[in-house]
Amino acid sequence: MRKLFFLFLTSSIIFLSSCSKDFLQVNAIVEKNCTGSYLKIENKYYYVCNQSIISSYTSGQAISVSYEVLEGCAGMTTPDCYLNFNYESIIEIKEII
After folding, report:
1. pTM
2. pLDDT recorded at residue 2
3. Under 8 Å CB-to-CB from 48, ≥6 apart: which residues?
4. Measured at the alpha carbon of residue 17, what is the angle toward residues 4 and 65, in degrees to the nearest 5?
5. How much of the chain exceeds pLDDT 70, in percent?
6. Can you give the pLDDT at residue 80?
7. How many CA atoms lie within 13 A of 57 on its CB side?
8. What's the average model confidence in pLDDT over 53-72?
9. Fewest beta carbons within 10 Å, which of 10, 35, 36, 48?
10. Bridge-partner residues for 36, per DSSP?
11. What average pLDDT does the structure give for the chain?
């Protein structure tokens, strides 16, 4: 019984230590317009909440990123224009690879 408990405990520790929060990693195209900054991933646009991370990139430039999908964005501002730009969801870029 003791060996079984030890085996279970060891397996649990190994399993839990191997778990990490993985973010989605993709190749994307930067899209910037008067409504904000977006990433185009598989022909869908995603609003970038932390836009400063891609401020040095130009529209049309390809980048590889890891990101997380968000429910909302505290940094969303009123657009500088009346363009209606549809997007799939809001993301936060975690890392530019």
Report:
1. 0.74
2. 60
3. 36, 37, 38, 39, 54, 91, 92, 93
4. 150
5. 77
6. 82
7. 22
8. 96
9. 10
10. 33
11. 84
